Fold this sequence. Notes:
The strands form 2 sheets. An 8-stranded parallel barrel has the order 1-2-3-5-8-9-10-12, surrounded by 7 helices. It has one domain (about 5-305): TIM Barrel (Alpha-Beta Barrel), CATH 3.20.20.30. The radius of gyration is 19 Å and the shape is globular. Strand 2 (about 45), helix 2 and strand 3 form a beta-alpha-beta unit. With about 325 residues, the chain is α/β, with parallel strands linked by helices. Helix content is about 40%, strand content about 20%. The protein is built from 10 helices and 12 strands.
Amino acid sequence: MHQPTMDFGYNPPTGPRSMEKIRPNFFSSDLEKTLNIASNGFKSVWVSDHLNYTDEFRLECWTLLTWIAAKFPQFNLGTIVMCNSFRNPSLMAKMATTIQHLSNNKFILGYGAGWYEEEYKAFGFEYPKIKVRTEMLAEAIQIMKMLWNKNDATFEGKYYQIKSANCEPKPSKAPPIMIGGAGEKFTLKIVAKHADWWNDLSRPIDETKHKLKVLKEHCINEGTDFDKIRKTMSVRIFIDKSHSKAQEKIKSMGLYIENPPIAGDHVYITEQLTEIAELGFDLCITVLEDFQNQEDMKLFSEKVIPNFKSTEVE
């Protein structure tokens, strides 16, 4: 019997995401309990990068990631995705190589151009148009790769400059750069030119096929091997022993029509993820419904993950 290939990562909350009930005073213990369960099948943990939407409880991405790295050294570590605008790229290169060194090469730098204008303005960041933000993203990636690989690195860009900079210790294995986003004109072009991995959000299968087609066209234009870019997908999962109960949950919450969650029993969810795997996505970065009640994670770990063959990607 054919067994599809897919790894699984877990994206825990940094604050409320419309479904979890976050208990600020117990957040660290709740997260520790959840990650202990996640260690039975999930290969990686991924932290989102938002400062605040409004006045809700929310932890900063990098600080939380380092806490997880210290507590759970067995996981690969990723960001999904860090906003280029929030940190200077030369500092980001230094942060990345430090955690890569301390984690024994377990870090993946998920990176993006940023998108939430209100957050930018609230925290005093300029919010350029998408064309400028993606140009800045491209320059930032070039700077980071240069710092990881060269001594006395110098870069004169339109937006960023460095002069005779050294980033030590240089990584013995450069962190893969995973670009998040699916904008067809700008973002996917940057993916084709600069990314090792690509992350997309779940969407109807026909739309996903179209995004893959556009990315492939950009790869042809950039002279990049499309097959060498690892395809990953972020998916919200609503799992229940009862298929109808899982479906009712998303209907009652009215969740994300453009980026629909997958909701159902373990058989249905396995079928849907198999369809995604057959398109070439071999990492599912999973958001699960209930942060405090870990029954959904237990069910997913026991009944879904074993149906997939793990990749050899470290």
